Every structure is written in C-alpha cells, then in structure tokens.
TrEMBL record:
GO terms for molecular function: aminopeptidase activity. The keyword Protein transport does not apply. It comes from Kangiella japonica. This is Aminopeptidase N. Its EC number is 3.4.11.2. The gene is pepN.
Length: 877
C-alpha cells in the first residue's frame, strides 16, 4: 500500500487553462469526451511528463492537438496515465467509457434509483475521466450532457445553463458553464426526473439569485424547510461575515444513496435526502435543526472551501474546521447558544476524544494517509472547528472577522494551506500565533489539571495549572499548547465575583478579561480580593478542546450545577456529578455489596428539574446521564458490564426517587393541541422525552401506557419516535407488535423507516442480535444504501454498547460479517464501520482478544479495500 505524506507536496507542473467535458449518459456505457487546454508552468521542468489520475476508466482514444497518440506515446499506469514529451502548450483530448450502473462505491458518476449523480470529493473525479485530480489544479469547466429525454428531463451541472435542445432518437442535451475556476472535486452532474421547488433570494447588493431544490417525485411538500434554511443561511453569511453569493442560481439535488451528509459542489450542491426532506410528521425536531445546519454548512463552503480552497488534502481542516465553526455559529444564532454549545461539545467528548486516544489519532492537519476518505474525521471537522473557535476567543469577534477579511482579500481564487490561514489571522491582528500553531501539528487531547489555594490573610486565590498530552501514534513527546482557559469565580451566594488577577512572577499565566492563557507545562495565576469559599468555574464555554481535571467535592459540584452563570459549565457540573457516581458504583461492584450513592445527587437532580428559570432543552441535556462512549473516555480501562450496570442503576434510582416529579413535569409540559415548531414547543417536547425516559426505566404498566398513548396520539415524529424507542428498548411484552405496527404505518417513508431500523438495532435486550441478523433480509434494508447501513449496523455498533460488547463476542462477529459483505460494494462506508473496533484496548482481556480476532479476520479478507485495510491495520499496530 502507498502512504501519502504531507511533506511530499510538489506543485503540479502544468496549468489546465480550461476543461470541456461531454457526457453521453448510458447506464453501462457512459462516454466521457474530455478536452483540456494545457500549458506548462514557467518554472516547471520541460521534461516533466503529464501525469493524469484515472481509475476504472476504459480509454477509447487519446489525442494531442487533434493528433491521435499511438501506444508508444503514452503509458497507462496503475490508477492513471502518463504522457511523455508533451509540448509547452497543447490540447489533450481523451474519450473514456465508464459504467455508472455498476458503480456501487457512490464515488465518481453513479446511477442511483434511476438518476445519475456524482460525488468527486476527495478523489472521485478520477473515476470520471483522466485528469490531475488534486485540489490545487483549478480550471474553468464547460460541460455538455446528453441523455434520453423522457427518463432524464433535468440535466444539471455547475454554473449557468447556456444552451439546451432536442436531439434525434428521443434524446436531449444541455450545456453548462461555470465562470469560476474550481478544482475537480467541486465538479457535479445530476440527471433525472425530479420534482422541483423554486424560490429566490435578493443579495445584499440587490442581485436576484434563483434557488432550486430538486427531489424525488412526490417529496415536494417536504422541501420547504430546506428552502427557508437556505435563505436564512444566505442572509446570515451576509450579515455576519459580509459574504455574498456569486452565481445566478443555487441548486440543491437530494439523493437517497449518498456516502456522507452533503456535498458543496459549486452552484450544485448534492444532498443526502436525510438533510433536505423534513415535515413534522416524518422528521424530529433534531432533524429540522440538522437540515438547517447542513444546508448552512454547504452554503458557507461557497466562500470557505470553494472561493478559497485547499492546496492539498492534508489541509482539509482549512475548509472543514472553518465551515463547521461557521455552521455552529449559524445554528446557535437561530436557536440557543448555550444548548448548541453543549451539543457540539458532546460530540467532541464522545467521539473526538476517543479518536485522539485511539490508533487513528491525527492532528487536525494530518501528516500522512493511505486513503484520504478515512480522514474526513471528527478531528479534522469538529476539533478543527474548536481550533477556529479559539481564534475568536483569543482575538475577539472583531479580530477574528478582521483575520477572515485578510484571508479572503489575499486568497480569493486560490488553493491554500492552514499556514496561510494562521498568517492572515496573525497579520490582521498583530498577534503572535507561533505557539498556537501546535494545534495543527500535534495530535491528542491536552489534559489540564488545576488546583486552588486560598490565602485567607491576603484574600487571594491562586489557581495552579499543569498541562500535558499523552503520546499518540508517531508522536511520543508533545510541546505545550497555547490554551485559552475561560474562568469565573463564584461566591457563596452563587454570584460571579470580579476577577482581579495579580501578576506575581514572570512564569505566571497571562490573564486577559476572563481568559487565562496557558502556554507552559506549569503555570499559576493569583486573584485578589477574593472572599472565602469561592468556587472556581474553569473552562467555561469549553474554551479549549481539552480534558480538565479539578478535584471538586460533591458539594461543590452540586453548587455549580445549581448556580453557575455559565450554562455550559452548569451542565458540565451535572455531567461530572453523574460520572462520579457511576465510577463510584463501578468500584462498589468490584468490591461486592449493595450499590448506593449520596441522596444529595437526587435532590440536585430534583432542583434542576424544578428550576423554572431554565429552558426545557437545557434541562433535558442537564438531566441526561453521560452516555457510555463519553464515560469510556474518562477512564483508562473499565469493566464495561459494571459501567453499564452502574449507569442503569443511577438512572433507575433517580427515576424511582423522583417518580412523581418526572410524571408531573411530563404532564405539565405535554402539549396536546396543534403541532407547533417554535422554541417553546421544541423545549417542551425535549423535556417530556427525558421525563418519559426516566419513568420507563421503572418497568411499570403506568409508564408503558403513557408511552403507548404518546405514540398513538403523536402529531409529530419527535413525540412518536421517542415513544417508540422507549417502548422497544423496554421489557414491555407487546413491544414487537408496537414496532411492527409502526413499520406498517411508515413503510413508504424511507427516512422514518431508517429511524425504525436504528431503534431496533439499539434495543439493549439479548434478542437484538438475532433480530438485526434477520433484519438484513427485511424489505426495508438494502446493503448498497449507506443510510440503511448506518441506521442498522452503524447504530448497533455505536449506540448499543450492551449488545455490541456482548461477552460472547457475537456483536463483534456480526460486525465483521457485515464488513465482509460490504467492503467490495462500498469501501468508504465499510471503513467507517471498521472504526468501531478502534478502542479495543480499553476493554477486558477476553473482549480485547475477541475484537483483535475479528480485526485479523477482516485483514485476511481477499482484495481488501485500502480504506478498510488502513483502519484495521492501524487498529492492530
Ligand atoms: N465536503 C464534503 C466532504 C465529503 C463528502 C461528501 C459526500 C460524499 C462523500 C464525501 N467525501 C467527502 C462534505 C462537507 O463537509 O460538506
Ligand atoms: Zn464541509
């Protein structure tokens, strides 16, 4: 296998001045005629061969300046083509044949449910034609598409449609021109018979942009939320960042078979149906927010990704970290900043910390890869967004905006690096980011340990910080990071006191406002005028992606849970409180004896539930016990059976001791009138779901009846799906009948059925594994469809810890078998599934052995894709 290194970057020796592509679409024999106008760069070696990427292409002809090449003049190599002795300026024409119908990888051009569709990021364009398929080769594209008219009335590509017409034999054609230079990964083509929703947006300079959403026939009524979201995103980017859309049309096409969420192709976004279609009866409140977020994300890429793109794929976080940050801010502005921050941090804690601590750990700017698709990770995306957020913390909103302005002024139309981004931030603000750059080069989660010391005579409180970062593959020793730690000090009445830092020695941490700048392995900071018994609130707003250790007493945590003015840290205090109880219960199990925990935890929970000043969504988050994957990341090794038992015990105890409270809050928040989608209704639904979740753990008929009634009377999918989940995951006798009825009711709504599959797969009961085995043959399941695979197999491995980690190893065997069926069909999705074994070292020796064994089984599969090979082999290293 070939490993690609960031340090090997060399500029491409040729400019591709323009590209003309002519597609004659046919399922098994699409013909692609390509004409490239090429010029050798002034500083390039004049002997430089012309190297083009190409995969699964049948070359039919090749010519330079209209002269057909004979076989001695070019060489077909593995995954490409080399032409030797090319002139300084020339036109290269190639004709290739491809087979979209048999392309199950969903990369390149493929046929899905009777419609043609492309996916070119990162390296899919090479499955369409021979081309330098790298992001730093930018060109203008003109595209002609020809197909049978009745089956494919819509023929779409990037930019503006400049020509179209009929041709003989029932065919028609369209020609598209994109005036903006772009890399091949932003090319797109769609052809099919869609329903179309149109609207328009007037930009800040008064230009009218036509907005078009193309969906499967019959789904038009589910597109209105996506259209409104697009308009909101366009307006928001103008208002917040001064960024305006640049083409006359913005098109979105929704497809059912898609490897990821969506793709930001210039002027022609392609979306997974999951992130376009939404109506109250089929989509949950979370789905509505996700649609808005992904629509925003892809729209924001038009500037952060398309106008300024990446020089090479190691720089992926340049566009993804920045665009995730932008979509997070967008959603926060549309919803609730505190709630959104908690939700984003939950992803970091449960998934990114796990990646940082596992075999695939990499910096946000990786140094090497075997398969690029494996590096579309929570580290590159979400930790990347945290790094961008830290610029805003360090430079302030205005400073961050100034940095972005410089970035766009300097680099519009270019393919650049993360270093270019840092420099723009530095230069715009005169701020030294030398040490901050380590966030790009060092992998792993920094750990910050804090202790406090109060000097009653001087009325001074000193906080002492240490930072460290564990070794990650290939990086034994780490240098200290520049970590902005936002702090507050809370007095006994629960009020924040004014921070008055005193500088004692040179080695003290610098404090600016409420930010302590950690730069060395050990630093301290002293505050003046501090009354007795003040409690520090550290890492407010999760101001840096680190693990914080501070030895709070149970009483202090409960106090923070009730009083912290920083909503993130208030939530955090509750999470720490619950985690502490759970780990304590684990220890009790090791020792034997009855399980117990302090009653003050129950009253803290009740107080939060009863706090009328709090919003229901926040309450719901604060009352949710940390999930198993988050808990796993808080320990080095753990008995998973004890962990799950402890978590269930805590939940059930809280349910029992506060039964009437959960019931009361359920009843007072339950809304029985018409469906509303405002913030208050969303909050109430969230809180009801949480209350019902507690009640259901009691396994009482009264709770079952409540859930059944909610399911029967629900006028929206939020209420229906949570009720279904709670019933299916309970011991209710008739649960399978309830599940079957739900299936019958919704069988024609694919996205609802995907929820049903996930609910079936995450049932913690012992029968689940047999059930999901037989669901593979169920009419609702289709191995070639990534949404189905993620809903059934992905949900089982990531959200059913009890069954996936069964002591008998059947969960692991099940996963390996599915990978075996899938890796040749869809390497990308198979590799993602394989990642479920990444944390095998966390478990007991029997489970370790069983997971290792399945990784060996995977590695022995014939003609294993490099995607899966990279994940499995690194896991075993
Ligand atoms: N930039 C895109 C990343 C992507 C992708 C999307 C769909 C299918 C396969 C893909 N491979 C890479 C999505 C985004 O971040 O917006
Ligand atoms: Zn993106």
């Amino acid at each position: 296998v070939q490993v690609h290194y960031r340090s090997d970057y060399k500029p491409y020796p040729y400019d591709i001045k323009d590209v003309y592509l002519a597609f004659d679409l046919a399922p098994n024999a699409t013909i692609v005629d390509t004409t490239l106008t090429i010029q050798r760069k002034a500083d390039a070696d004049n002997q430089a061969p012309l190297c083009l990427d190409g995969v699964d292409l049948e070359l039919l002809s090749i010519a330079i300046d209209d002269k057909e090449l004979d076989q001695s003049e070019y060489r077909l190599i593995e995954d490409g083509l080399e032409v030797l002795n090319v002139p300084e300026r020339f036109t290269l024409t190639t004709k290739v044949k491809i087979s979209p119908d048999t392309n199950t990888s969903l990369e390149g051009l493929y046929l899905s449910s009777g419609k043609y569709c492309t996916q070119c990021e990162a390296q899919g364009f090479r499955k369409i034609t021979f081309y330098p398929d790298r992001p730093d080769v930018m060109s203008t594209f003109k595209v002609r598409i020809e197909a049978v008219a009745d089956k494919f009335p819509h023929l779409l590509s990037n930019g503006n449609r400049i020509e179209h017409g009929e041709i003989e034999g029932g065919k028609h054609y369209a020609v598209w021109e994109d005036p903006f230079k772009k890399p091949s990964y932003l090319f797109a083509l769609c052809a099919g018979d869609y329903d179309l929703l149109t609207s328009s947006f007037t930009t800040m300079t008064g230009r009218e942009v036509r907005l078009e959403i193309y969906v499967d026939k019959g789904k038009l009524d589910q597109c209105h939320h996506a259209m409104e979201s697009l308009k909101k995103a366009m307006k928001w980017d103008e208002e917040v960042f001064g960024l305006e859309y640049d083409l006359d049309t913005y098109m979105i096409v929704a497809v059912g078979d898609f490897n990821m969420g969506a793709m930001e192709n210039k002027g022609l976004n392609i979306f997974n149906t999951k992130y376009v279609l939404a109506s109250p009866d089929t989509a949950t409140d979370t789905d509505f927010i996700d649609v808005e977020a992904v629509i925003g994300h892809e729209y924001f890429h038009n500037w952060t990704g398309n106008r300024v793109t990446c020089r090479d794929w190691f720089q992926l976080s340049l566009k993804e970290g920045l665009t995730v940050f932008r979509d997070q801010e967008f959603t926060a502005d549309q919803t609730d900043h505190g709630v959104k921050r908690i939700e984003d941090v939950k992803v970091i804690r449960s998934h990114q910390f796990a990646e940082d601590a596992g075999p695939m750990a990499h910096p946000i700017r990786p140094d090497s890869y075997i398969e690029m698709n494996n590096f579309y990770t929570v580290t590159v995306y979400n930790k990347g967004a945290e790094v961008i957020r830290m610029y805003q913390t360090l430079l302030g909103r205005d400073g961050f905006k100034r940095g972005l302005d410089v970035y766009f002024e300097r680099h519009d139309g270019q393919a650049v690096t993360c270093e270019d981004f840092v420099r723009a931030m530095e230069d715009a603000n005169g701020y030294d980011l030398q040490q901050f750059r380590r966030w790009y080069s060092q992998a792993g989660t920094p750990e910050v340990t804090v202790s406090s010391n109060y000097d009653a005579d001087k009325r001074q409180l000193t906080l002492s910080f240490t930072q460290s970062c564990r070794p990650t593959p290939g990086q034994e020793d780490k240098e200290p990071f520049h970590i902005p730690v936002k702090v507050g000090l809370i007095d006994t009445l629960g009020k924040d006191i004014e921070l008055k830092p005193v500088s004692l020695t040179d080695s003290d941490a610098r404090v600016e406002g409420d930010i302590v700048h950690l730069k060395s392995a050990q630093q301290s900071v002293t505050f003046d005028d501090v009354p007795r018994n003040v409690i520090p609130s550290i890492l407010r707003g999760f101001s840096a992606p680190v693990k914080l250790h501070y030895d709070y007493s149970l009483k202090e945590l409960i106090f923070l849970f009730a009083n912290d003015s920083d909503s993130f840290n208030r939530w955090q205090a509750g999470q720490e409180l619950f985690s502490r109880v759970i780990f304590d219960l684990c220890e009790q199990q090791e020792k034997g004896g009855t399980l117990r925990f302090d009653d003050s935890v129950v009253s803290a929970t009740k107080n939060l539930l009863d706090d009328n000043s709090l919003d229901g969504q926040f309450k719901s988050l604060a009352l949710t016990i940390p999930g198993v994957s988050t808990l796993l990341e808080q320990t080095n090794s753990i008995n998973i059976d004890h962990l799950i038992t402890a978590r269930d015990f805590l939940k059930k105890q809280l349910a029992e001791k506060l039964e009437l409270d959960w019931l009361l809050h359920y009843q007072t928040n339950r809304h029985l009138g018409d469906y509303e989608q405002d913030k208050e209704s969303v909050s109430k639904r969230a809180l009801c779901g949480t209350c019902l979740g507690y009640l259901m753990t009691l396994e009482k008929d009264s709770a079952y009846q409540l859930a059944l009634k909610q399911l029967e009377t629900a006028n929206n999918m939020t209420d229906a799906s949570i009720a279904l989940q709670l019933i299916v995951h309970s011991n209710y006798e008739q649960k399978l009948k309830v599940a079957e009825d739900f299936y019958q009711k919704w069988q024609s709504e694919e996205l609802v059925i995907n929820k049903w599959l996930s609910i079936m797969a995450t049932d913690p009961s012992d029968e689940t594994i047999d059930r999901i085995e037989s669901l593979l043959d169920h009419p609702s399941f289709e191995l070639k469809n990534p949404n189905k695979v993620r809903s059934l197999i992905g949900a089982f491995t990531s959200a059913n810890p009890r069954q996936f980690h069964r002591a008998d190893g059947r969960g692991y065997e099940y996963l390996a078998r599915q990978i075996k069926s899938l890796y040749a069909i869809n390497p990308q999705v198979s590799a993602r599934l394989t990642g479920a074994f990444n944390r095998w070292r966390k478990f007991d020796s029997e489970r370790q052995q069983k997971m290792r064994q399945q990784l060996e089984v995977i590695l022995s599969m014939p003609e294993l894709s490099k995607d899966v090979f990279e994940i499995a082999s690194k896991a075993l290293k």
